[in-house]
Amino acid sequence: MPANLDFYFDFISPFGYLASLRVDELARKYGRECRWHSMLLGISVLKVMGLPPLTQIPLKGEYLGVDLKRYLRRHKLTLARSREMGPSNPIAAGRAFHWIDARDPALAKSAAKAILNAYWQQGTDIGSVEAVVTIVEGAGADARALRAGFASGEADRLLRAAVDRSLALGVFGSPFFMIDGEPFFGLEKMELVEEWLASGGW
Amino acid sequence: MPANLDFYFDFISPFGYLASLRVDELARKYGRECRWHSMLLGISVLKVMGLPPLTQIPLKGEYLGVDLKRYLRRHKLTLARSREMGPSNPIAAGRAFHWIDARDPALAKSAAKAILNAYWQQGTDIGSVEAVVTIVEGAGADARALRAGFASGEADRLLRAAVDRSLALGVFGSPFFMIDGEPFFGLEKMELVEEWLASGGW
Predict the structure, then answer these.
(1) What is the pLDDT of residues A18-51, one digit of tens each?
(2) What is the CATH number of domain B5-199?
């Protein structure tokens, strides 16, 4: 049985969101199961790397905005969020995702898609537990049990453990893909990921 | 007449070198003139960005090595240099390049190719003026006039002006491509650059 395609993303990373729209289809095309993993880019990974938020890095910050707008034009996509709106805190979304994922990975993926859609296509602030619970309840999650998971600290522990695992694997950006032990960083690596899947690697 | 394809690179950047092997053919295919511009990634740009050498950034540094080796395997290429050898100082190469470029851009491109080949395929240290002069003399440059350009400070002034120009354009990495005013960063953007050239942009 072929290994998973593991997809890592931060809920508030636009390039992660754009990858999320394509990654399941890519995995399916090559008979791979696609496992989703939320991570915390700004809150955790960039601190480990000693970097400021990417949008604040001189030259690169501006370029990322140009690159994002170009991708949207090319793929005829729009987003309800702009950089000027400022990001939501992604911790509640990450906790909910990993609490659900520990019980039902397929439901966790549906919940993640609902959160991403609310944030990027409806402009919803996903920074509060209540906002996240409402969204994932709409995707089929048990809101009462999830609230208990927040209250007990279990959701927090699961998110922390997941972030530690992804760091140990070397995941340092969003999106990030792991296939057959091989790391691929960035939305623009999806064509290379496809070549890897098609060819069996090189 | 279509605009140039402007190609920016640091002599000691492996990804810049790998792009240099493909960029002329890419421009020719779409009837663009390819102009080469050497820049100083570690010495100048990363300081403006507030970043350490990329290979020293936790997680990312290791990934870049994996990504480079994978590219080499995929394209059946080898390099005579490894990270363990340590980089040469690229200032002499940059000064020579821009001194020649101010007089004869086509010769500057040939000189750059000779320097890149010496560094990446023969493992030559290009850190000294003498090493660089010897290499570019082999490519047809006037060694005596170039030495005078070093001695007078003209080569230094030309390099500094070029670095300032590239920073003003937002060039922050190697390789970097500017086409029709549109910036593209990274070796993995060459397919997108080709799509831009083929489609007229989007």
Answers:
(1) 999 999 999 999 999 999 999 999 999 999 999 9
(2) 3.40.30.10
CA–CA–CA angle B177, B180, B183 (5° rounding): 35
On chain A, the residues whose CB falls within 8 A of the CB of B189 are 188
Across the interface, do B50 and A57 touch by the CB < 8 Å criterion?
yes
Cβ–Cβ below 8 Å for A49 and B58:
yes
Mean pLDDT of chain B: 96
Instruction: Report, as an integer, the average pLDDT of A121-133.
Output: 98
pLDDT mean over B83-103: 95
Angle at B184 between CA B178 and CA B186, to 5 degrees: 125
A120 CB neighbour count, 10 Å cutoff? 23
Domain coordinates in residue numbering, chain B: 5-199
Comparing C-alpha atoms, which of A32, A183, A180, A20 is closest to residue A113? A20
Confidence of residue A2 (pLDDT cuts 50, 70, 90): confident
Query: Which residues of chain A are at the B interface, by a Cβ-Cβ cutoff of 8 Å?
Result: 45, 48-52, 57-60, 62-63, 66-67, 70, 73-74, 167, 170-172, 182-183, 185-186, 188-189, 191-192, 195, 202
**Above 0.85 for ipTM, yes or no?**
yes
Q: Tell me which residue of B155, B162, B156, B159 sits closest to B141, measured CA to CA.
A: B155
Identify the three-state secondary structure at position B27.
helix
The DSSP bridge partners found for residue A178 are A6, A183
A57–chain B nearest CA distance, Å: 6
Distance between B202 CA and the closest CA of chain A, angstroms: 6
**C-beta atoms of B172 and A202 within 8 A:** no
Q: How confident is the model at residue A1 (pLDDT cuts 50, 70, 90)?
A: low
